[in-house]
Design brief:
alpha/beta, Spore Coat Polysaccharide Biosynthesis Protein SpsA, Chain A, two-stranded antiparallel ribbon
Amino acid sequence: MRIGFNPHKDKVQDTPYYLHQVIIPVYIPNQEGYFKDSFAILKLCLESLFSTIHKKTFVTIVNNGSNTVISEYLDLLFKQHKIQELIHTDNIGKLNAVLKGLAGNNIELVTISDADVLFLPNWQKETVKVFAKVPKAGVVGIVPQFKMYESHCGNVLFDTLFHSNLRFVPVQNKEALIRFYDSLGWDRKYNPDYLAYNLALEINPELSVLIGSGHFVATYKKDIFESVVTYIGLKMGGNSEGYLDKLPLEKDYWRVTTLDNYAYHLGNTLEDWMQVPIVSEEVEPHFDCGFPKNKKLHPFLYWIKNRVFVKFISIKILVQLFLKSKKLPESMIQKY
């Protein structure tokens, strides 16, 4: 039997206090083998996050089937109000965990990150700067990588192909780029030219962005997720990660990355260089908001930009013409 009237019935939600959400799915089932150092890596990740975000950041952790040790650690962080939302589930897969974290709020920017990312100072400020200065940006990465423009960037290249401010520029942080590929377990036999130049778009004399973005840590405009599936039938890999890559294209959003490096990928092995003191400092909230939202792109234009144009510009002779026209040094064109 119900007696009385619920005082919250028909009450309009307050204007969101938070400006930025961070979602991190966590899966650490044990502390053995592949996961031997994962707890220590997770602590580094979260401590670096807490020390580099402003107070209007809403942190969501999705505990995706981790063991009791990890669950109790996350519960403690929640009780200490270091994280604002904690979701415990069985192992439902990485992307399904992310989808859970996306629901239930209307925060304009959302960073989706793996649990092995070391956040560096100013990552949040530099991310917001890009959204504020690049109206078509829908995804902003903070870790430069090799040749990112070759993945899910047909629309950016289509829109800027004949712009003189689209060109190859010297890599700004070579050491960080090397460290990223070391963290993936690559040897260093890759083309050294990739460490020298990357494709960038100059927005103004004070700001340039790299074309393309990885997906292990990136910030999205929330309206990209207005219509999403509720279940992905893969734990990891397959088309699960590609799903997040393709969604921004449906609204013709650009994928870009900061020119400098603002995070490190740690992997699953603790190394000496990671053991640096993390200094907490007061981070001022950004007050940029109301970023432009794109409408869904007409299917025909989507097909032209992201299918036809991509195949066209992938023809070998056209690739070489593109590299030359965008000021890649002549000596690098044949092997780049």
